[in-house]
Amino acid sequence: MARSNLSIYSALASNVAIAVVKFIAGGASGSSAMIAEGVHSLVDSVNELLLLYGIYRSNKERDKYHPFGYGRELYFWSFIVAILIFALGAGVSFYEGYVHIREPAISGNLHWNYIVLGCSMVFEGTSFVIALRQFRKTQGDESLWPAIRRSKDPPDFMVLFEDGAALLGLAVVLICLVIGHVTGNPYLDGVASLLVGVILTAASALLARESRSLLIGEGISQKTEKAIIGIVKKDTGVVGAPRIFSIYESPDEVLLVVLLAFRPELTVGAMTDKVAAIKENIRREYPKIAYIIVQPQDTPPAPVS
User: Fold this and answer.
1) Pick from 18, 147, 153, 16: which is nearest to 77 by CA?
2) CA dihedral defined by 19, 51, 49, 168, rounded to 10 degrees?
3) What is the rounded average pLDDT for all residues in the chain?
4) How far apart are CA 135 and CA 160, in angstroms?
5) Structural domains of the chain, ranges and CATH numbers in brackets
6) Mean pLDDT in runs of 10 for the chain (305 residues)?
7) Gap between the Cα atoms of 90 and 202, Å rounded
8) Per-residue model confidence (pLDDT) at position 305
9) HSE-up of residue 220 (Cα within 13 Å, Cβ side)
């Protein structure tokens, strides 16, 4: 399925540019918070590249070693991105904050920091709006967080999370630098770095949880399962459906296994026709269910519920 990577490319372009100017401003002023923000933007740039690589790998054609394709590569690289946000982004932020709280000192002209932060918020805000608009195309009628939990396409919500965390981090750094500059308190620079680390840790934990669930084999929702049971119940030849198994092989491909018990008087030919009809009905309602296996049961289980 064709997809738009506009949000990833816009985030990559803004993060590369912002990282450069942040490092220049941080080096000139000696601000640990600005250096931490520069590392944050650099990590985000690497993350976008990894997401693009994951998308590329997930589009490889299936082969004899991977009969269901490489779609879950996207989930693997998304999990790596979540780990990097913590290991590099949050780790460096905590380290810089610790060092500058132990030895607080701010040198240089902080006005450059304010200019860079202001420009960064404009670029990050633009990238966030683009990512939000891209995500809303698949959001439906749900509110934002339930839609993120429901989404099976990590790049859709990972860029949104990254940009949101970046905007929040920029706001924290700006507030702390302004207060520290006005009051002459050098400790607030280190505190800002620590707060950025906390923000990145929270974002990393949420993203890792969602990516992990998909990586180890997340299935369709209970709502969808009930709807499929409803489709099965319409066939008068079915007397029981004890279990449905499912797993997302990619954001657009689901493997579904349905255990069914048919009426004992059905012939093999009639049962084959009913299996084909059930598969067709399920695919008509849920096009993403690419693989459907219907397993007849020898003994009638509990009635369809």
Assistant:
1) 153
2) 0
3) 83
4) 8
5) 6-215 (1.20.1510.10), 222-296 (3.30.70.1350)
6) 73 86 77 73 86 90 86 90 85 85 70 80 88 80 76 83 86 87 83 89 88 87 88 82 86 90 85 89 91 78 47
7) 9
8) 47
9) 23
Instruction: Give the Cα separation of 284 and 286 in Å (integer).
Output: 6
Overall size of the chain counted in residues:
305
Nearest to 210 by CA among 152, 252, 132: 152
Supply 125's token pair.
């805000």
Q: Find how far residue 251's CA is from the centre of its chain.
A: 11
- Rg for the chain (alpha carbons), in Å? 25
How far is Cα 230 from Cα 305, in angstroms, rounded to an integer?
9
**Number of other CB atoms surrounding residue 21 within 10 Å:** 19
Tokens 């990393």: give the residue: 204
Strand ranges across the sheet with 253-262: 238-250, 253-262, 289-296
Task: Name residues whose C-beta falls within 8 Å of residue 27's C-beta, 6 or more positions apart in sequence.
Answer: 35
Torsion of CA 173, 175, 176, 179, to 10 degrees: 150
Q: How far, CA to CA in Å, does 203 sit from each of 97, 113, 165, 254?
A: 18, 24, 7, 28
Instruction: Give the separation between CA 197 and CA 90, rounded to whole angstroms.
Output: 4
Rounded Cα gap, residues 39 and 34, in angstroms: 9
pLDDT of residue 53: 93
pLDDT at 301: 46
What single-letter amino acid sits at 112? Answer: W
Region class of 69: left (phi > 0), else alpha (psi between -120 and 50), else beta: left
CA distance 243 to 304: 10
CB of 94 closer than 8 Å to CB of 227: no
